[in-house]
Write a structure and sequence with these properties.
Mean pLDDT: 88
Oligomer: single chain
Low-confidence stretches: 24-44, 469-482
Radius of gyration: 26 Å
Strand content: 15-25%
Number of domains: 2
Distance between the termini: 99 Å
Number of helices: 10
Structural class: alpha+beta
Helix content: 25-40%
Largest sheet: 5 strands, parallel
Length: 482
């Protein structure tokens, strides 16, 4: 009898819970029940984005840029034609990058170019970036995948390099730690081998990816510490090489091998309290592209970068272009007024310019995103307002701009990429599959290359600097500034 009594009690509880759920469902946000909910596994929440949204005062300003003719001042004697806001690309502000490409193209043995590509889940697992890297290396040369963090939530899905690591690393990310124990590295992370009872390790192996079939000049990057006892045991095949860490500077490097190798394992011994950033792999020639992707990132955490540390990184790596590819995590926060994001990212980009003086910056807008309206998937109503805000802060910070939304086809394009053959995006109507990522990389490269070809044509037409001649005082002066 007691068994029957418990059965009916349990049944009654389940029945009441079901009725209560149905009753309350109508008062809950509809998107909780979306039929195309994205996979949110291991997604971190950008704390700075949440703070910015919470502080949004709904302040709007009169748009003075839309109808304004954008006229440029010459750089290196080159001036691109004036642009309208609607079609703004900002090639003028990429001239320093284009000049480095030109020097590389004309002097391939003595020059190299480096790009830092910051992004969110759209570039997770080296998506998009690996294909953009290959496009540049196919034209200008270069071997290697560039900078790779100690740990990564997308390591298992990355095809451009095999990356494994122990689970006892202490990780601090600029997404959710505002005051790290030590400044973040250029990858937005800092790692510590503080588990003194167990060895922290990391292992890398080259795959068959084009232009990355070997690990070229593997080099460890680490920070400053008072611990002078740290060592790294580098295991290459059957050989173990013991290397000491000397954390005297803000950014230090340790070359694992002077040769190109297929793979290695690094064990960190007595390295607690030493900030560890990651490893770099490149042959020092051609073009190198570092992928600094982070799921859940709005771009705002870049404002926490320490300028001195970033300048130290830049002195060692030498960046010529920084790409900021964000937007996915900014959509759908209850507003179509992105004045707050425009304002916050303007400050962020200007801070980045302080961190990397003289380095050109390119803003890549959000891609199209599909959302269900009246049982039909359409372009999310927040996509266009966000792209306009991104274009605004690109212009205000004198950065180049790629409108990814229009490049991929504009209104309704994500729905087509998901539903039409060949399928180029996932069923979340937000992220690209490998085919789509390769297509996006091609579109990005095409626009950047169009600007480069236009730059070369304008460069040929620029006026040469006048020869210096003595004036009446005998002092030589430039009569013309090229």
């Amino acid at each position: 009898m007691k068994t029957k009594s418990y059965f009916f009690q349990s049944f009654a509880i389940v029945l009441l819970a079901t009725v209560a759920f149905i009753g309350f469902k109508q008062f809950l946000p509809k998107k909780i029940f979306s039929e195309s909910a994205p996979n949110s596994k291991n997604v971190l929440i950008d704390s700075m984005l949440l703070d910015a949204v919470a502080k949004d005062v709904k302040a709007t300003t009169k748009d003075t840029l839309v109808n304004k003719k954008i006229v440029f001042d010459p750089t290196f004697g080159v001036t691109f034609p004036a642009e309208k806001f609607e079609e703004y690309k900002g090639y003028q502000y990429l001239i320093s990058f284009y000049e480095k490409l030109y020097q590389l193209e004309t002097n391939p043995e003595s020059e190299n170019v480096r790009i830092a590509y910051f992004g969110d889940s759209m570039t997770d697992g080296d998506m998009i970036v690996q294909d953009l890297r290959a496009d540049y290396q196919a034209k200008f040369g270069g071997q290697g995948v560039g900078f790779v963090s100690i740990t990564s939530e997308s390591a298992a899905s990355r095809g451009s390099i095999t990356h494994q690591y122990s689970g006892n690393w202490k990780t601090q990310s600029y997404l959710n730690v505002k005051k790290p124990r030590s400044p973040f590295g250029v990858n937005g992370h800092v790692f510590f081998a503080n588990d003194t009872a167990h060895i922290e390790w990391v292992r890398f192996k080259a795959n068959t990816t084009r232009f990355a079939t070997m690990l070229d000049n593997p080099t460890l990057f680490y920070g400053k510490s008072s611990n002078l006892n740290g060592k790294v045991n580098v295991i290459i095949g059957k050989d173990t090489i013991v290397k000491s860490l000397t954390p005297n500077n803000l950014v230090n490097t340790l070359k694992v091998s002077s040769n190109s190798i297929k793979g290695f394992k690094a064990d960190f011994i007595k390295a607690d309290s030493i900030p560890i950033f990651g490893f770099n792999f490149d042959d020092g020639k051609g073009v190198h592209v570092d992928n600094f992707s982070q799921r859940g990132n709005s771009g705002l955490p870049i404002s926490t970068f320490n300028p001195a540390v970033m300048q130290a990184f830049n002195n060692k790596l030498g960046y010529d272009l920084i790409v900021l590819h964000y937007g996915t995590n900014v959509l759908n926060y209850g507003t179509k007024d992105y004045t707050w994001y425009d304002r916050s990212m303007t400050k962020t980009v200007n801070h980045l310019k302080e961190c990397f003086p003289g380095v050109a910056i390119l803003i890549v807008s959000t891609a199209d995103k599909g959302t269900k309206y009246d049982l039909e998937m359409k372009t999310d109503s927040a996509v266009v307002p966000l792209t306009v805000a991104q274009k605004r802060y690109a212009l205000k910070t004198q950065s180049g701009f790629v409108n990814l939304y229009t490049l991929m086809g504009g209104d309704g394009s994500m729905v087509k990429w998901v539903e039409e053959e060949p399928v180029k995006a996932n069923k979340d109507y937000t992220h690209f599959n490998h085919r789509g990522a390769k297509k996006i990389a091609g579109l990005l490269y095409e626009q950047l290359n169009q600007g480069y070809e236009k730059y070369k044509a304008l460069r040929q037409k620029r006026k040469p600097a006048a020869k210096k001649s003595p004036d009446s005082t005998g002092i030589k002066k430039d009569s013309v500034n090229a």
